[in-house]
Amino acid sequence: MNDLEFNTVLNSIANSCNTNLGKKAVLQIEPITNKVDLLQQLHQTNEYLASFENENKIPNHHFEEITNEIHVLSIEDSFLEATSFQSMATISDTVNTLLKFFKKFKEYYPTLHTFSEEIEYTKIIIESIDKVINRFGEVKDNATAELRVIRKEINTIRGQIGTSFTKALNHYAKHDFLDDIRESVVDNQRVLAVQAMHRRKVKGSILGNSKTGSIVFIAPEATLKLSRELQNLVYEEEQEIVRILKILTNTIRPFADLLKQYQYYLTAIDVLSAKAKYALQINGLLPKISELKKVLLRDAFHPILLENNKKQQIITVPQTLELNEKQQIIVISGPNAGGKSITLKTIGLLQVMIQSGILIPVHERSEVYFFDTILTDIGDNQSIENQLSTYSYRLKNMRNFLRKCNKNTLFLIDEFGTGSDPELGGALAEIFLEEFYNKNAYGIITTHYSNLKVLADELENTVNANMQFDEKTLEPLFKLHIGQAGSSFTFEVAQKNGIPFSIVNRAKKKVERGKIRLDKTISKLQKESNKLRRTSESLESEQNKAKQHSESLSEKELKIQEKLENFQELYDNNQKMLSIGRKINEFSNNYFQTNNKKKLLADFMKWILIEKSKYTKKYKTVPIPIAIGITSKAAKKQQKTKRIATEKKLETVKHEVLKEVKKIRKQKSAVKKEVAKTNANYKYKLNDHVRLIDGKSVGTIDKIEKNIATVNYGLFLAKTNTNQLELVKSAK
To answer: pTM above the 0.85 mark?
Structure first.
């Protein structure tokens, strides 16, 4: 936990708590061993996070701690102060509000509702306290008849004291016995400010004097009598209040365990709220929980580094990494300051966070697995107290690793094998690595040892990886590349940092040629790999651009074709209207010249019949009518033969068309099924262009809540389930 700086994460979460009890609970968070409890907490936090973007926001859960009050309730014959009852009533009311809310919106917050169902809902505590205590934390006047009478008498006496004091003030003021200030207050009691020379002329009790002695403060005699009576009444009031509070304490005492449960419940809600706020801060989410032994972290961020970089406005580079049966152990190599340790800590910290019920900053399609044990050996950890060297400490760690390691273990080791003679330490590290491998443990190690890089290539389910470096500037890119060991760039980095070339060259001669050649080969391969990767990314980018351009051209071609067809149809209609206009104009001119109505009507009807015949031929499959003027039987028989032949031909064409229609229907059905399958796997997002299945109107998605999408059609909004939608165009 210390290696991974988990306490730093807890401190960040604690800062988002509303209560001290919540902060204490957060700082005590540890990985949860029970998988059911862990999943429940993760889903509760995820639901609370969703409430921030939901219209149905979870009500406020702030409360004042009542631990001392609950303790007092457990002591026989004890009683609580009025303000304590007010705190208990507030807690009870807050819990009731939350219970009613989660019951009302149980479809939105199922796990939070299940958690709330265990808490008893009651108004007895609130009602019992409200009868006695007002909203200011004081005992009400009508709590009992006796208290009402006493307080009424107290108010009367106070009025009389004010009247008698004013009377005495006016009397002695007329005789000029008083100083310019006339009156003052001593021990919460009004007194006359009498000039010292006239003190014997004023009846009353001397309660003090000014610093100079020129003024004597005297309480008038009449006022003193009333004040003594008031003190007696105040004492009676206090006794009555104590009696009332004892009765109320005995009424609430049976609910001590329930109040304790209420406080625990609100503390748990405060912790969930803080976790959700922290998740919002780091873009945390709940990834898929894999039943198979598999870890897939896509675009994973180190939360502490992410927060620090945000403050400094520095871009944080995410990591993508996978552990599975075919990729059981990853050996990361490469130069120092390249991000190996941060990658190691990122994986470890995110694993501890998710197993402690905290959402993590990864891509939504990431997958996690719950390990029984997470073992880390990160940093120097030289123990001065135990007088252990770095290597002795690490050997002690390896002994613990070997003892605890099993198939449900995740181990993370930084600078594996260092601290001793490179050859001997490297050989021992090889054996440790083989032991972890044989125990089917999952793990990630970082190293500079060449023999471990070679071993990673030899073991079937172990892979090499390296941290990417710019081979020209030797600046780290902080990107993890799986599948190839990394060069340490020892001499190159030394030269870049100003070490003279002559010294670097002499150092090269001290090292065995084989090692230099191996490091050079790895370095060269890494450079070639980087070039290939960049070329691949460039080609992929160009391919995507070409595809988009092709799609754009196809869309334009379809639009142009559609416009041409519409234009052709419009042109044909215009030509037809012009032809009709010319014919009518011809009839009109003939009529104007001859003034012969019969000829006009005959010509017009003849033209109408011809046009009707053309229309029938074009739009209806009816027999062709016999032309006007054909009356002979032979002609009629010939016409009938032609009509039968035409009908047969039309019937043949009809069958052929029906066959094609069936084919087209099958194709459309197949396309529809493919679209439905795509829609089932597609995860809708905001601004997607969609339409209802079998619908024509296209709208855009404005909001998605629990698979219910709000679709904007421009003039109106509609809500529907996402499985009823069909994707038209994905949002960019």
So the answer is: no
